[in-house]
Structure formats: structure tokens, C-alpha cells
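Morning run. Coffee first, then this:
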Amino acid sequence: MNSASTARKPCTILQFLYVWMLMFLFVQVVDAQTVRSSPPIQITSYSIDVTLNPAHHSMNARATVTFTALENLTAVSFQLNPALRVRDIADASGQSFRFAGDRTIRVSPDVPLKQGDSVTWTFRYGGVFEGKSKTGDDPNPAEEVQLASIGDPISYLLYAARWFPTAGDMTDRFTATMHVHVPVGERVLGSGASGSPHLDKSGLTVFDFNWPQPGFPGTIIVGRFHEAGASDSSANVRLYLVDEKGGLTPTDAEKYAVMASREYSYFTSRFGSAGSGPLNIVELQDDTVPAYWAPGIAAVAGRQMQGENSSRLLANTIAHQWWGNEVRPATRNDSWITNGLCRNSELEYLKQNSDATTFADAVLNVSASALAYDTAPLADVSRYSDFSTEFQAMTYDKGAMIFRMLQWQIGDAAFQQTLHAMLALHDESMNAAGVEKIAEAASHQDLRPFFTQWLDSTGAPTLQDNWTLYRLGDNKGYRTVVEITQDLDLFRMPVEVRVEADGKIVTQRVDVAGPQTQFTIETFGVPRNISLDPERRLLRSDADMQVRVHILRGQNMEAANDSAGAIQEYRLALGIDSISSLASYRLGEVYFRQSNYQAAADAFRAALRGDGVPKWTEVWSDLELGKTFDASGQRDRAVNQYREALQTGDNTGGALDLARGYLEHGYQAMP
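And here it is:
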């Protein structure tokens, strides 16, 4: 799902979804859940012994769990992936307990637990992972995301898959030791220090991992990986790729390793050393999420390791070593803190390593995603499932914009001080009140109105300006009286005003409060143009943003197979901007997939007559229009249209390569 002006192959919706949760990972639309209450226990450590059988897609495990009761309990509930079945649960003395359930395991000990009791229980369980594995406790089938798989060439058990017994909202940290048994020739990547692999009595290779500090070390990835690297990549970053046909070429692997090393070094320079230590970049299969992180691990799907978005996805994933491993949300409602800081870090890296236009477009895209599902306050985001489009957009993108606005509000130095203070509290959970307190201490500002505005409310202001020009006597220049109006009665934030006056630019920071704010600005030359918030530091709405929002929603609906909803959103976008080439192009895509070739052709022609933003809509509209002619048996007209595509010289997304193929073989004959 591309934004309203991102120039990339238009058919690769998942590439865009990575970024806005792009991250993706991010195309499943899930009904709102009820807010889960805090669990009555706190898990402090695990000792897990697991054997994987890739040939049979199965696993058998023994998980010893140490936890503390936070209240008096007659029963304790754990979450476990429904593909797994528990055979036995026993206490430290070997006494077995009664239990029931397959997704929520309810355990009834013979002696009730008292508040403060710390106990150790052992679970013996196993199962088969084939196809998609359900996560969470919501029975909605739309929540299916493949987070666990056992087979060739890769086996992966991601923390979110709940492949071991968990409790609560996955916000409590724990220590862990893991012993992973796999066939000879397989390599296991996990979190923490690992000794030398050794053979067990069955001839399987055992990999041992120890994570001694509280964290989230619940991910293991197994495969016949080969290590790739580069001469100028950091010794603290290692790249593991699947040793099979179709992976990165040696040259691309070297470039990727260098890119990972540079991103890791950049974040280290910004935030200090990562507590997770050396970083393993590992390739995941394409049938899972675009990217995932664990302490010391940045796992990226093979398809996401190439293309223009690969750098941003990797940067976001690496940033979790700080804003995930070092800082944890107190509740799921606080997930915007860690997710937002990861997206914000990704944007900051992009700003330092791209041109101004690319960065500005990325900020617009993030803003559109932040506003696309702004129907509930961010402080109530736990109503959505972790992998829903709403949760991803709100926590990553609105979260990122909140931190971008906070930096503008308190200044660069105070913002950097705030980030380092948050990292210094890595043993504590972080909530909105904590962020507010730290930022207030760094800036000496009252930030309650700021956080109330962006966490407890919905909507974003639409800024407009009216100005009157006065000439000053004695050639002293001009005074401009400016009135800023906006539509949120309680809005209060500083706004940058830029005045272009006869080749000279004057900027001024103006505190805007309420519907109307008036101020004056003086220039020597005649003011020619006034722009509000030119760097897009604020989350705000305007006509262009609304077009982007509707297109984004439409693309998400397409990804969820809701064609009717997508068509409605694209028409809403065109109702605001009738010459939006991207909206017309996306509309044509939906009609083409429905075999409504006349409507598709009309939409693609409208895209060619439109504003030409982004530029690739021209070549792809020619290409798609040619396909409609081929599909309707008009080969001569199709050939002419493919030639029109070739004349653009724009090979965005391989458009020219496809045009040549269609020109020679025809659309329907192409593989």
C-alpha cells in the first residue's frame, strides 16, 4: 500500500505496509477486542528444552516457569499457541496439577497461591506447526498471522506465537535459558550467550542460550544458514542467509551487511551501546511477517531484503534493540512509546541518509497512516489486536508523530536528554505519565496539555492563514499581520511560520492556542508567500492529507480483500481531488482485478490525464491500460499502449521490462 506520492512499483502493496507497520505484518484487519486486564502473576524466568523435527513440522518441549502471584489465586491462566497440546503440568516436587483449555490453559493447583508466593511449574507439551498459526486469545480468524513454522529451509518460533506458556499482554520481562535440539547441519539463532553446539544422546545438535537479565528472549530461528558479511561491516553485526537458490547474490549480501552495520553504528552513536550486545541479522521466509526482532536479533523476510524500502525496514527493526529491548511499555496502551520511537528513529536515520524530498514524503506518509484510523484515542489503543492495521498505524505512526512533535515542542537538546533518560530506566516499565515526567524535567515545560491533546483526544488541526501587509516608512521594510485559524478549540502548540520575501526567507515560531491566533512579522523585502509548518513537524490535516488518507485506507481494504470498501475510499479521494492520478490508478487496479475492463480502462485514462503524481503512475497506467486491451481481445490497441509505456523511459518497479514482455507475448500469455 503506497502513499499518495511514493514512487515505487504500484502493485507491491506489502512493501508499503511494512513502513506503516509496513512494516508492516500489517495487512490483517481485525475487529476491536476488549481491553485485557493485567495478569494476576508476574513471570520472572523460563528454562526451556525444545526439540524440533523439521521433517514432521513438529516440536516437543519442556518449559519450567518461575512466577510470582500478585494476588491470592485458586487458579492460574497461561496463554499457549492452539497448535500445541499440554501433556502435563507439575510443581517443583513433581506433583501434577489439574488443567483445562487449549489456547488459554487454566491450571488449578491443589493448594491455592497466596499473594507474594513465588513458585516454579514445569509444562510438558508439543505439537505440529504447519500453515498459519493463531496468536492471542481472540477467535477472529482474521488474526491469523504466521509467527511459527517448523520445516525446511527455515524453522522459526517467534515470541508473539506463544510457543511457550505466557501470561498477560507480553509486557513483562524475564530471564531465560534455552536448549534447542535440531538435526545435524542446522544452525540455531537465539538471544543471549551461547556455548559451543554439542550432540545429545539421540544424535541431535544442541544449541544452548542464556539471557541473564530481564528481557524478551523468546524467539528462536533455525535453518541451514550461511554467514555473509563484508570487509567494512562491523564485527558486532553478522548476517545469516538461507543457503538456497533465490537468496541475495554475494554482491547484494555484502551491500546489505554494510547497510546493517551503518544503521547499527548510527543508532549506537545516538543512543549508546545496545544492551543486547552483538546483532544477528537473519533471513526469514517470505510467508511470515516482513520483520521481527528479539534481543540480539533482527529477522527480515527475504523478499524485504531488496528494494527501496529495505533500508527503512531494517532500520526500524534494528531500532528495537533500544526501543523494545531497553524500554518496555507498561501496558499495551503504552505500546505507542516503543513502537513510535522505533518509527521515529527510522525517520531520523532516513533524514541523515537521503535527500530532503524523500524525507518530506516519508513524513507525509507517516502522517497519513497516523490519521487513517484516528477514531479512538491513542491511550485506548489496546482495544485493537496487536497485528491489526489500526494498532500498527496508531502505535507506530501516530506514536512517531507524537515524538516528532515533542521534539519540536521542547527542542532538540531536551528531546535527546529525554531519550537518554528513558533508556537509563531500562529496569522499569514506561507509560505515558513516565514519558511526560521525564520530558518535563528535561525541558522545564508543563507538557500536560501536549500529552492530553495527542493521547486522550482524536483528530488533528487544519491550519489556515490570512494576512495583511503594511509598508513601513523610511524604507524600513514591511510588517505583515498574520492570523492563523484552525478548527480544534483546545489545540495549543508552537507553529513555525515561513515568509518568503524577495528571495530572502524569514522564519518565526508562533504559539498557536485556540481557533484564532494573531501575530506580526517584519521583513525588509515584499512578502511573496507565507507557509505554516513547512517542515511538517505537526500532525495536521488538509485536503492533500485527506486524499492520502483515503488512498491508504483503500489500499488496506484491497489487501484485506474488501474491494467494495476500497472503491469507496478511492472515490472519496477523487471527490476531494478529481485529478489525483494515484487515486484513479488504484481505482483502475480494483476494477481490473474484478474483470470490469471498461471501468478499469476509464480509471487508467483518468490517471494519465491527472496530476501525474507520483510520476510512475504514467508508465504503469499505460501498462495496465494495455493489459485491459489484451484481456478484452484488442491486441493492436494493447501493442500501441505498451509502446506508449516504453516511451516514458520509466522503469519503476520493472514496468519497462513487463511492457517489453507483454509487447512480445501478450499479457495473457505471460507467466
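The CA atoms of residues 316 and 346 lie 5 Å apart. Good start to the day.
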